[in-house]
Write a structure and sequence with these properties.
alpha+beta; 3 helices; Formiminotransferase N-terminal subdomain domain-containing protein; Formiminotransferase_N_sf; Formiminotransferase_N; FTCD
């Protein structure tokens, strides 16, 4: 059985489609499938979902985080939702053949 992990980072950009697309595209690497990009204009945040093998998804998440940090200026950010940074959360979710413990290890 092929191991699959989901990753669902929340980025602090929900209005600028150019930035959103660049950030989401950073996760599009071989073996990783971009599943959804869901911006929220009022909260100025976007939830991005992608999936693949554990190590591939881990690398894709790192690429996405680096791109978000490069493009999102938090000193100018405004939105209804409290924020911690360019990427507030980046959960790894077990989907198939992977345990929660495996996902915790990926996150660390």
């Amino acid at each position: 059985m092929k191991k699959i992990v989901l990753c669902v980072p929340n980025i602090s950009e929900g209005r600028d489609w150019g930035k959103i697309n660049q950030i989401a595209s950073a996760a599009e690497i071989p073996g990783c499938k971009l599943l959804d990009v869901a911006p929220d204009v009022d909260h100025n945040r976007t939830v991005i979902t992608f999936a693949g093998g554990p190590r591939v998804v881990q690398f894709a998440a790192l690429k996405l985080i680096i791109k978000a940090a490069e493009l999102i200026d938090m000193s100018k950010h405004k939105g209804e939702h409290p924020r911690m940074g360019a990427v507030d959360v980046c959960p790894f979710v077990p989907f198939r053949g992977v345990s929660m413990e495996d996902c915790v290890k990926l996150a660390r």
